[in-house]
Design a protein that fits this description.
mainly beta; Neuraminidase; 10 strands; 6% helix
Length: 142
């Protein structure tokens, strides 16, 4: 195992800190999704594209909130799983998946309950784990 880059050198302290939470590779580059300190700043998380040979990285996608999963699909698009999109922390049924291709974003699904991971299967379908923390939603009782 070899260190590719050290994010802590570039994002010191509590304000600028980026916590790597998701990793995938595509066409020879690494892609790293991040969280920011809690309470979460909506729109402050990013996905970085990293050159594994040099450790140099650039922002691939910005204006995200709580990235917990990354996967490239058979269509070559990056799919980004966000735990909670419009909240300052985890909240039930607020997760979503965004498809990013050629700089264009499309929301694939919303209302996911505490999603924690996703992957494409050999069948080309996207699989997502939900209820990764917290319990499943239950209907209110009267």
């Amino acid at each position: 195992m070899t260190r590719v880059t050290d994010f802590s050198r570039f994002f010191p302290g509590n304000i600028d800190w980026r916590g790597p939470t998701a990793l995938t590779s595509h066409a020879g580059s690494l892609y790293i999704g991040t969280l920011t300190p809690f309470p979460v700043t909506v729109g402050a998380a990013q996905v970085f594209k990293v050159n594994p040979a040099t450790g140099h990285f650039t922002v691939y996608a910005a204006h995200l909130t709580t990235v917990l999963g990354l996967a490239f699909g058979p269509d070559g698009a990056l799919y980004v799983l966000e735990m909670s999109v419009h909240n300052r922390g985890p909240a039930p049924a607020t997760g979503e998946i965004i498809k990013i291709k050629n700089g264009h974003r499309t929301v694939i699904t919303t209302g996911l309950n505490f999603p924690t991971a996703m992957t494409f299967g050999p069948d080309g379908n996207l699989y997502v784990s939900v209820n990764g923390f917290g319990g499943p939603l239950t209907p209110a009782r009267s």
